[in-house]
Amino acid sequence: MATAGIPEEVLRNEQLIQKLEEIAKDAALMSGILMRTKETPNGSEVVGFAPFTLFPSPVPKALFQQALAVQVHFNLLVDKISQNPDFLEEALSSTIKVDEFTAKLFNIHRQVLQEGHAQSIVVGLNRSDYMLDQDEDGGTSLKQIEINTIAASFGGLSSQTPDVHRHILKVANRLEERKKILDNNPAAGLAKGLAKAWELYGSEKAVVMFLVENVQRNIFDHRYVENELWSRNIPVIRRQFEDVFKTGSLDQNKRLFVDGQEVAVVYFRNGYMPQNYTSTQSWEVRLMMERSLAVKCPDISTHLAGTKKVQQELARPGILERFLPDQPEVVAQIRATFTGLYTLDMGAEGDETVAMALAKPDHYVLKPQREGGGNNIYGREICEVLEGMTDSSERTAYILMDKIRPCPVHNYLLRPGAPLKLSTCLSELGVFGAYVRQGKEMVMNECVGHLLRTKSSEHADGGVAAGVAVLDNPLLV
Ligand code: ADP
Ligand code: MG
Ligand code: MG
């Protein structure tokens, strides 16, 4: 158990904790850390607080700064990958033979390439996620879990959580720790990227369209970004695939119109998992938007650049150098965040990976090409899945990754309706990147904030929306 952070005697002071719980929940509601309820996900009459930790969790300052510093390089790397169709084809060729979802995305990518891109502006809003791995010699290092290049969430709500933790620490009379809570405003930075793209598109009446899910519990997270845009006098509309299918079209210049409004930027907060595409119409709509003159956030190739298969291919010797020639320091900075990633492609290399996984399943995570939490396979189940495959080509839908082992810390996870108990927790640090490219020129490339999510160590997988992790703040130590 980590010793830095909030002392154990505070965590075990029951009277204090009870008082803080009540204060914390009210503070969260008053600060707008909101989520719609499971029962009424599409209305705001009844809302609750988004789950969060009672206390901030310790994060070593040097590793935190390392994560922030490498972000602009990840932005650049993702963008370069998205512009390299040969690499994407090579990296994903085995995956798309067996994974239907990735194959469908890839087909759209191919079609757009064949036709030629209508729009040369791209806006990327991503979040690179890390855990702090404990080495055998007692040290910790920053290791990337994944990078999310589509619909990366919680940039809005995480702009509000610092105030709540500051308030709690004031009431708890922990003033030294209170000073260490950082300001954070990813929503503003994400909106800045969208606003820049909107400006470059160059039509004052055109709108930014948030493409949203049918079930919208996390709408307030979007609203923070949306309201930043409105405050810049940039009009925003929210639409689902179905709406765009019914009222969307391209004109002869491929300008995208939805409900009679020209769309300058499509911001995907949906479309990242198979269930999001409820019919073939959703796929038709995705293709239409990708073909259009609207700026996509992200475009289809940037979406593909965020797949776990691409992440694994990047870890091969020489691949980073291919994207970043003459930048050995940048390559080293990126590579330092990689943990072991292994191919499951057909052939000797993949066979070796399987043998390795079967021998020590607890050392690895088996990952399919999915997003949104709850899809990974851990421990004994890795053996069951690998051994249970009827055709060994099925394995190429997955990658294998070293399991990262962060240091557990005590904290309380606050969830509506859940009884309070001291939990042993693990944290995951996310860093938000925002960039805009026009043709060959990067016109914006920034690190725009962070997100700390914490879960009980009983859970192997994560995700706030998946109901496992909760929002948190780093307490730099
Ligand atoms: P998703 O795209 O579904 O979020 P992730 O790769 O982030 O997929 O995995 C989901 C969760 O599983 C993470 O938030 C983390 O809690 C856990 N996880 C993923 N990879 C690892 C790993 N290599 N070591 C330990 N935990 C992991
Ligand atoms: Mg993800
Ligand atoms: Mg994740």
UniProtKB/TrEMBL annotation:
Keyword Metal-binding: yes
Documented EC number(s): 6.3.2.3
Keywords: ATP-binding, Glutathione biosynthesis, Ligase, Magnesium, Metal-binding, Nucleotide-binding
Binding residue positions for substrate: 127, 150-153, 216-218, 269-272, 453, 464-465
Cofactor: how bound: Binds 1 Mg(2+) ion per subunit.
InterPro entries referenced in this protein's UniProt entry, alphabetically: Glutathione_synthase (IPR005615), Glutathione_synthase_a-hlx (IPR014042), Glutathione_synthase_C_euk (IPR014709), Glutathione_synthase_N_euk (IPR014049), GSH-S_sub-bd_sf (IPR037013), GSH_synth_subst-bd (IPR004887), PreATP-grasp_dom_sf (IPR016185)
Glutathione synthase substrate-binding domain location: 206-305
Leader sequence segment: none
Binding positions for Mg(2+) per the UniProt entry: E146, N148, E371
GO molecular function, one term: glutathione binding
Catalytic activity: gamma-L-glutamyl-L-cysteine + glycine + ATP = glutathione + ADP + phosphate + H(+); gamma-L-glutamyl-(2S)-2-aminobutanoate + glycine + ATP = ophthalmate + ADP + phosphate + H(+)
Cofactor annotation: Mg(2+)
Pfam families (UniProt xref): GSH_synth_ATP, GSH_synthase
One cellular component term from this protein's GO annotations in UniProt: cytosol
Binding-site residues for ATP, renumbered to this chain: 146, 308, 367-376, 378, 401-404, 428, 455, 461
Pathway assignment: Sulfur metabolism; glutathione biosynthesis; glutathione from L-cysteine and L-glutamate: step 2/2
EC class (word): ligase
Entry's family note: Belongs to the eukaryotic GSH synthase family.
Quaternary structure, from the entry: Homodimer.
Its job: Catalyzes the production of glutathione from gamma-glutamylcysteine and glycine in an ATP-dependent manner. Glutathione (gamma-glutamylcysteinylglycine, GSH) is the most abundant intracellular thiol in living aerobic cells and is required for numerous processes including the protection of cells against oxidative damage, amino acid transport, the detoxification of foreign compounds, the maintenance of protein sulfhydryl groups in a reduced state and acts as a cofactor for a number of enzymes. Participates in ophthalmate biosynthesis in hepatocytes.
NCBIfam families according to UniProt: glut_syn_euk
Protein name: Glutathione synthetase
Organism: Clupea harengus (Atlantic herring)
Gene giving rise to this polypeptide: gss
